[in-house]
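<amino_acid_chain>
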Amino acid sequence: MKPVKCPVCDWDIQDGGIKVQVGGKEVVVCCDDCAKKAQEEPAKYTPAAK
């Protein structure tokens, strides 16, 4: 199975990642730093939301 990539830093997401609400959508990122970045720039990362 192909690893899922973090939409913020493009690293592989391990152990299910961290789910964060960005622009009213759920985005899965690899770490707390990427979660913070996604919340600071929701327009940049919302298209990656499911």
Summary: The chain has two helices and two strands. The mean pLDDT is 89. The chain has one domain: 1-50. The beta strands are 18-22, 25-29.
